[in-house]
Amino acid sequence: MKENIIRHKSFDFAVRIVNLYKYLTETKKEYVLSKQVLRSGTSIGANIEESIGGRSDKEFLFKLEISYKEARETIYWLKLLKATDYISSNEFDSIFNEADEVCRILAKIILTLKGNKNSLKVTADF
């Protein structure tokens, strides 16, 4: 069986997000933004898993598109956490790069499935 890179990367990213959530709530005593980043950051991999179990190609693509949107949302929350000094620039850079990579992989998969190279913004623009 061929290795599913996005499946593994999204799971590893979710683990980092859970650890970030624990850090934010336990150390920084931040409970609102941390919950948002936890929800969107773990949703990426959950939707990828759902896509793998999809009943049709259309359902598969739909769930991957949701994963992409959740990845973009996660990037937003990470930027906000950095801008409000809940995470340092170094902490941000590390997790942002991983989020951006997940976004790029998902975008490439989606664009390949759609056969259209111009319908999705691929970069995080930050």
From TrEMBL:
Look up and give the organism this protein is from: Flavobacterium chungbukense
Q: What is this protein called?
A: Four helix bundle protein
Annotated Gene3D superfamilies: 23S rRNA-intervening sequence (1.20.1440.60)
Matching entries from InterPro entries are given as: 23S_rRNA-intervening_sequence (IPR012657), 23S_rRNA_IVS_sf (IPR036583)
Q: Which NCBIfam families match?
A: four helix bundle protein
Name the Pfam families on file. Answer: 23S_rRNA_IVP
